Amino acid sequence: MLGQLPDPEFSQPEKREVMLREKKNHSVICSSTILTGLVVTLMLMPTSTVRANPVPDSAATSATFRTKCAMCHGQHGGGSEVGRSMNVPDLRSPAVQKLSDSELAQAIANGKGGMPQFKNSLSEDQIQALVTYIRSLHPKK
């Protein structure tokens, strides 16, 4: 038709080919960026999970609690019959839970009142794992 300009995209095949190539390159760059971000996120996620939960093996920590603590503090931290007769604190109580991590670790390591010391039989990592375990005990009802 007269007076109408031809569509430049279809009248110039080379220009169309260049545009398609640029679009494809842009898609590859965007896809690569998204994929890289996803890989980095997935690689960092386990690291942040480990930092958030420093207990390397909760089964081992639970076993340590059962063998070293439960005789007096009970399986769930509320105190065993023996422990209640000695007035050991309920580990789930606000009084115990408000103690700092270092105060709990010090009590475990050096003992307190009638509680024996465990610094000679537990590593620092095991003591810290027990502190985390005590923090995880369900609150006293």
What is the percent of helical residues? 55-70%
Describe the global form: rod-shaped
- Helix tally? 8
Find the structural class using helix and strand composition.
mainly alpha
CATH topology heading of the largest domain: Cytochrome Bc1 Complex, Chain D, domain 2
Poorly predicted regions: none
Q: Could you give the order of the helices and strands?
A: HHHHHHHH
Rg result: 31 Å
Number of strands: 0
Main β-sheet: number of strands, strand sense, barrel status?
none
Q: Kindly state the mean pLDDT as a whole number?
A: 82
Overall domain count: 2
CATH top-level class of the largest domain: Mainly Alpha
- CATH level-two architecture of the largest domain: Orthogonal Bundle
Proportion of residues in extended strands: under 5%
Terminal CA distance: 87 Å
CATH homologous superfamily label of the largest domain: Cytochrome c-like domain
Summary, kept brief:
The protein is mostly helical and 141 residues long. It is built from eight helices and no strands.
